[in-house]
Automatic annotation (TrEMBL):
Signal peptide: none annotated. It comes from the Bacteria. InterPro entries: AB_hydrolase_fold, RBBP9/YdeN. This is Esterase. One of its GO terms (molecular function) is hydrolase activity. The lineage of its organism: Bacteria, Pseudomonadati, Pseudomonadota, Alphaproteobacteria, Hyphomicrobiales. SUPFAM superfamilies: alpha/beta-Hydrolases (SSF53474). It comes from Rhizobium altiplani.
Length: 199
């Protein structure tokens, strides 16, 4: 099977984070290691991701927070053809994140292009990094299925998310949509408004 590339956000994902548990539980997954987790720069982070994708050939992406914006920034770039699908968990809003962490992030503007690979966005009703209205907007722009995890905060350790079976189930749904494909064709637009809350 294609490897699973784990994309954390600002500061990386600590040992108790669900992404770290995922790496332990799934031997086919690997962390896309960045040199500087504390001061993310889009071009630097994306160059690392694209290099890993080139080495992998094809891969799935599981991203959290700022890592979701990194994945979405691949739209329109050759490396996107190597992505079989992406699970985007608790994407952050740059307008909010830059206010909460002034001077630390150089990620430009929010990506708005439709993603050329299948994707599921998981968000919550009370994420202080992204309002529900903005979450719905970007899921629609990206052409992603939107799943509502309820009162899950930023879906991180502070919200009680260590090992996360719901994430594993969402990823299995994503894989089922692409398992029969040898290559990812251009994706037809899908509805991002129909949020599911089966968590």
């Amino acid at each position: 099977m294609a490897p699973v590339l784990m994309l954390p956000g600002l500061f990386g994902s600590e040992d108790a984070h669900w992404q770290t548990a995922w790496l332990r539980d799934h031997p086919e997954s690997r962390l896309v290691q960045q040199d500087n987790w504390d001061h993310p720069h889009l071009s630097v982070w994306r160059a690392r991701l694209e290099a890993v994708l080139e080495d992998a050939g094809e891969a799935y992406i599981v991203a959290h927070s700022l890592g979701c914006l990194l994945a979405a920034s691949l739209a329109g770039r050759p490396a996107a053809a190597r992505v079989r699908g992406a699970l985007l968990v608790a994407p952050c809003d740059l307008l909010v994140t830059e206010k909460l962490h002034p001077g630390q992030i150089a990620f430009g503007t929010m990506p708005t292009a439709e993603l050329p690979f299948p994707s599921i966005v998981v968000g919550s009703l009370n994420d202080h990094y992204m309002s529900l209205d903005r979450l719905t907007l970007f899921a629609r722009l990206w052409g992603s299925e939107l799943r509502n995890a309820g009162l899950a905060g930023h879906v991180n350790v502070a919200s009680g998310y260590g090992r996360w079976p719901g994430g594993y189930r969402a990823f299995e749904t994503l894989k089922a949509r692409t398992r029969h494909l040898d290559k990812i064709p251009p994706k037809k637009p899908s509805l991002g408004r129909g949020a599911s809350s089966a968590w």
